Amino acid sequence: MQHLVIVGGGHLAAALITGLYRQGFDGRVTLLSAEDSLPCNRPVLSKEYLKGELTEEGLALVAQHVWDDPRFTCQLNTRVSEIDRQQKTVVANGHLVPYDQLVLATGTTPRRLDIPGHELAGIHYLKTLSDARQLRGALQPGKRLAVIGGGFIGLEIAAAARQNSMAVTVLEAGERILGRVVAPEVSECFMQLHQNHGVDIRMGVGVENFMGQQAIEAVRLTNGEVLAADQVVVGIGVVPEVSLAQQAGLECDNGIVIDQCCRTSDPAIHAGGDCAVQFSPLYNRNLRLESVQNTSAHAQTILAQLAGQPIPEPAVPWFWSTQYEARLQIAGLNPDYDQLIARGQDTQARSWLYLKQGRLVACDAVNRPADFLQAKKMIMTETQIDIPKAEDINIPLSQCIA
Amino acid sequence: MSIQIHVIDANGHQQRLQADPGSSLMELLRDQSSGVEGICGGCCACGTCHIVLESDWQPLLGTAQPEEEALLDALDERTSGSRLSCQLRLSQEMDGLSLRIVPAEC
Does residue A102 sit in the same domain as residue A245? Predict the structure, then answer.
């Protein structure tokens, strides 16, 4: 009987396991997860879960009846330290586990801020359910929270903390928040949103060291200022977890390199999700995406491979973020756009189109789901945009074709 | 007490699913049927859990909240019975519910 081993217990593992169960996979599947809980829905950890709108029962990604099936096993708190590609075994918590097919779903690890004082209590990172549990307990009304990093995770946590009546300061080292992902105009919109909700946003400022006896008491900034804080959250990006693949001699380049079928340079090993780098025909470059949608697409590809079926067509990447009443949906990627079109001025509901030589390459939509859904399709077909029409928010985006 | 839901999945196959009240309809369909992705995990952000309720059932399940309505309105295949299954929680009253899954758009 075939043995499929999955390393890493996040969204890729969950989608594979559910899919294999449904396909009636005729082998055994073992999930080796370093975490202390079953695969859970990660994006909500920094949003609905943190705000107390969702309980832990609502986070499971794999239905209990799947785990009740003896063909599917999950080993928690299990670290894989080595892959032996000749013998087709992995070393998990010191024990040899043989595989016929291996999937690396190792994801990413939050980048650490290892400055003086980093060992103090009250400094949080957010990736796993256990991180989220701790952070949720730390978001107490009236206390002061310093958020280091003005990216999605930091801003979502800032929003949750404000909704829990904390005093919140966001410290961003760059010159604007969300600088890596959106245009300056969109950054500005989100900065105003947070300022309207009483967040103190500081830009162009780094952190020198953490101060406190046992627990965090203050943060010393690079401009010399000392900012008092009862809790700190660090959200300064993630590092793909590639060490296992690297040690095994698999090709890596800021991620585990995979082909269009999610195969690594070893045909018995697939990889996918946030740890994987794949060529995008649509954007004509190698991409490593941190996205549930991309992970889900990788899972469907691997499932098709294992079942000997044709792989699905590549899709337009998309992302979302919820902060206060703003629901941001992003379709596509904008690394080299040459024109930005704003649709509407209403701060509650507006969108931006990113064009390259007149073609739509990405869209950021705030409370404009129609623009988002239509943009996804128009990006796929590399649609030329009629700019004067697109600037009129009353004309549906799907009708703004040049 | 568990309830029964009649489903026509994205491939046109008929299914009868058993479920316990309390969890979301999206999760049931994602886990046991085909065509519902529920990528955003049920927070009304992606539109990949679109279903159409059989007409008799439409009035019994109430109307969509504004954020669900906005997303539904953006879908190509919206009909009068369209709902996002992530916004429907399974309850005893839904025993015998009949619905069709609309495949997620692109």
Answer: yes
Residue A73 near residue A21, CB atoms below 8 Å: no
Which two three-digit tokens encode residue A264?
Answer: 């690594």
- Residue B8 domain boundaries: 3-101
Query: CA nearest B26: which of B93, B99, B78?
Result: B99
Q: Mark whether A245 and A302 lie in a shared domain.
A: yes
CATH code, domain carrying B68: 3.10.20.30
Q: Are A107 and A273 in contact (CB under 8 A)?
A: yes
Helices (H) and strands (E) in chain A, counts: 9, 26
**Residue of chain A nearest B68, judged by CA positions:** A369
| d(C-alpha A239, C-alpha A112), whole Å | 9
What is the model's pTM? 0.93
Are A263 and A244 members of one domain?
Answer: yes
- Domain containing residue A142: 112-234
pLDDT at residue B42 in the model:
82
Neighbours of A1 (CB within 10 A): 7
For residue A258, the SS3 value is strand
| Residue B105 contacts A, CB cutoff 8 Å | yes
Beta-carbon separation of B106 and A367 below 8 A = no
Question: Is there a single domain that holds both residue A41 and residue A94?
Answer: yes
Contact A187, A173 (CB under 8 A): no
Number of domains in chain B: 1
Residues of chain A with Cβ-Cβ distance to B32 below 8 Å are: 22, 63
Which secondary-structure segment (H or E) carries B70?
Answer: helix B66-73
Note the pLDDT of residue A383: 95
Residue A344: closest CA among A370, A378, A311, A309: A370
Q: Give the tokens for residue B78.
A: 């919206």
Residue with tokens 């900034």: A221
ipTM of the complex: 0.84
Chain B residues with CB inside 8 Å of A377's CB? 105-106
Comparing CB atoms, the residue among B24, B40, B105 nearest residue A373 is B105
Residues 6+ away with beta carbon under 8 Å from A248 = A82, A83, A84, A85, A266, A269
Nearest partner of A364 among A143, A151, A198, A186, judged by Cα: A186
| Residues of B with Cβ-Cβ distance to A329 under 8 angstroms | 45-46
pLDDT, residue B44, reads 83
Run means of pLDDT, 10 residues per run, chain A, 402 residues: 96 96 94 97 93 88 94 98 98 98 98 97 97 96 98 98 97 96 96 98 97 98 97 98 98 97 97 98 94 96 95 92 94 95 90 97 94 93 96 93 94
